[in-house]
Amino acid sequence: MDTIANAITIERAKTSKIDQVDFNNLAFGKVLTDHMLVCDYKNGAWETPKVVPYQPITLDPSAKIFHYGQSVFEGMKAYKDSEENVWLFRPLDNHKRINISSKRLAIPEIPEDYFMEGLKALLKVDEQWIPTSEGSSLYIRPFIFATGTGFHASPADEYKMIIACAPSGSYFAGKVKVLIEETYSRSANGGVGFAKAGGNYAGQFYPTQLAVEKGYNQVIWTDDNTHEYIEEAGAMNIFIRINDTLITSPTSDRILDGITRKSIIEIAKDENIPVEVRKITVSEVVEASKNGSLKEMFGAGTAAVISPISGFGYRNEEYDLPELENSYAALLKKRITDIQYNKVEDKFGWRYKL
Ligand code: PLP
Ligand code: COI
Q1: Can you name the residues that pair with 176 across neighbouring β-strands?
Q2: Is 94 in the pocket of ligand 1 (CB under 6 A)?
Q3: What ipTM was reported for this prediction?
Q4: E strand or H helix that includes residue 240
Q5: pLDDT (0 to 100) of residue 78
Q6: Which range is the signal sequence, renumbered to this chain (predicted)?
Q7: Which atom of ligand 2 is nearest to the CA of 171?
Q8: Phi/psi of residue 109, each to 5°?
Q9: Ligand 2: does its nearest atom lie under 6 Å from the Cβ of 140?
Q10: Which domains does the chain have, with CATH numbers?
Q11: Of the bound ligands, which one is closest to the alpha carbon of residue 94?
Q12: Pocket test for ligand 1, best of 256, 261, 336 (most atoms within 8 A of CB)
C-alpha cells in the first residue's frame, strides 16, 4: 500500500478557481475542483497515478472510447463534519464495483491501492473544496475509458482512469415525478445493466427526454421482457412502501447494485421496518395507489441520496403519492446522512476517514 501512496506525484495548479464558487448555492456536478487524478494503463499495466491541475485532455480520434464506448464510471461523495474531518462512505465498494463494471466491458481492473491511494491524494490536495454547507458534499467521479486506438472492434490496449470532483448540492431541484416506462428498455438479461457503463446512460437519454417533455424527471424502468416488473430509475434504485412494508427489487443482470440501496435495506431492518427484497409488479403498485395502501416511493443513490417521489405516470394515467408526516424516506435519509456526515456513531462500519 505504502509504495504506491509514496510514488504518487502531485502537480499543483498555479491558480485556484475556488473564490469564484458560491458554496451556499451549489448545483450538481457543474463546477469542477482545481485538480484531478490521472492514471494510465499502457503495456499491460497501470502506471503510477498523478494528481495534476484540472485540464482538458487530448485523445486520438480513433481512440476506442469514441467508437465502441468502452467506458465505466463511479459516483462517490466526500463529506466534511463540523470539525472539518473528511469522510467517505463505503469507498471500497465503489472500487469493487468499478472493477465489476470494467470486467464486463473488457477493461483491465484497477488495483485497490491505485484507486484508493490516488483518491486520497487528490482529496488531500482539493480538501478545501469539500463543502460544509447543509446538504452539500464533494461529488467524486472516477471513470475509466479506452484511449487505445484503431477501428478494429476489439478491446483497446490503452486506458485512462481519471478522478474528477465537483462540490455539489441536490441532484433534483424539486419534487421528483417519474414515468413508468414500457416501450423502451434500459437493459436486458445477459447485458450490461448491472455495470456503470457510460452507454447505459446514453441509451436512457432519448426515452428520458420524451418523459421530461411530458413533465416527468426520471423514467422508472421495467423489465425488458414483460414490462410488468419495476426495476430501477435512471440514476437511482427504487423503494416502494405499501402499508408499512418497504419493498425493493432484487438486483440482477439488469439492475445496478446500488451502495445506497443496500445501506438503506440494512438501516430499515435496524429500524424494525419490514423490508422485502422481491420482484414487484407495476399492477401491484397501481392497485396499491388506487386502494390507498401505497404510502411512499423514493429513489436511493449517491447523487440522489433519498429522493421522495411525488407521483408517477403509467399508461397515460397520473398517480399522486400522499405527503406523509413521518415518512420512511425522511427517517432513512436522516439516518444515512447522519452516518455520512459523522453526526452519529456508525454501527455498520461504513464511514471511512480520509
Ligand atoms: N442505479 C443507477 C442506474 C445509478 O446510476 C445509480 C447511481 O450510482 C444508482 C442506481 C445508485 O447507486 P449508488 O447508491 O451506488 O450510487
Ligand atoms: C451517482 O449517484 O453517483 C450516479 O452515478 C448517478 C449519476 C447518473 C449522476
Answers
A1: 309
A2: no
A3: 0.99
A4: strand 237-242
A5: 98
A6: none
A7: 9
A8: -70, 145
A9: no
A10: 2-168 (3.30.470.10), 176-340 (3.20.10.10)
A11: 1
A12: 256
